[in-house]
Amino acid sequence: FFINAMKPEWRKDPSKPIDLSAEDPAVFETYAQYLYTHKVVFKGSAGNSFNHVAALYVLGGFLKDVSFQNFITGALIRHCNATQRFPPETAVEIIYQGTTSGSPFRRLLVDIWAYAASSGWIASRGLVASTSVDFVEDVVKALLEVREKPAGSRPRPWVAEPKSYNVSIP
Question: Is residue 48 part of a domain?
């Protein structure tokens, strides 16, 4: 961390302290514990735990600590595999606000949604409102890539029953 903190791209004025005032103290505390223990504990409710992990990944990006980001990614994958619980929309929102397009963690979240999500995952306020337009576009693209194509003998619904799209006359 301190080696990264001293890099010129980080320091606007080398005579001044590094400004971490915008960072959540609890997230930074977990990062500091990781520096000593190389462990991150998933604690609290599932949603809060995933939100914390998402914030840790974003902090790792801010600190330019790629090893930490990779550790967080691996820890999240192991946790999801062990518990069959997945990051909620709030964690997705944290990642999409704190990372750039092409982020491997964004791709992980998209893959989780493309392969494991059900309609019950979508919050009552809607997926775009609870995540981001970019996430929804990424998920739709991934769903179209991974879904099974209907069998060739099965007619397309607009061909088999075109009248099903008509407005009912009262």
Answer: yes
- What does the CA dihedral 141, 142, 146, 149 come to, rounded to 10 degrees? -20
pLDDT in tens, 116-153: 888 788 776 788 888 999 999 999 999 988 887 766 67
CA dist., res. 128 & res. 147, Å (int): 21
Q: For residues 156 and 149, is the Cβ–Cβ distance under 8 A? A: no
- Provide the domain limits for residue 81: 2-148
For residue 5, CA distances in Å to 17, 53, 85, 170 come to 10, 21, 35, 70
Element (H, E) at 46: helix 46-62
pLDDT in tens, 28-72: 999 999 999 999 887 766 568 899 999 999 999 999 999 999 999
The full DSSP string for 72-96 is HHHHHHHHHHHH-----HHHHHHHH
Report the domain count for the chain: 1
Of the listed ranges 19-23, 90-94, 106-110, 148-152, the least confidently predicted one is: 148-152
CA distance 115 to 108: 11
Nearest-angstrom CA–CA distance, 42 and 132: 25
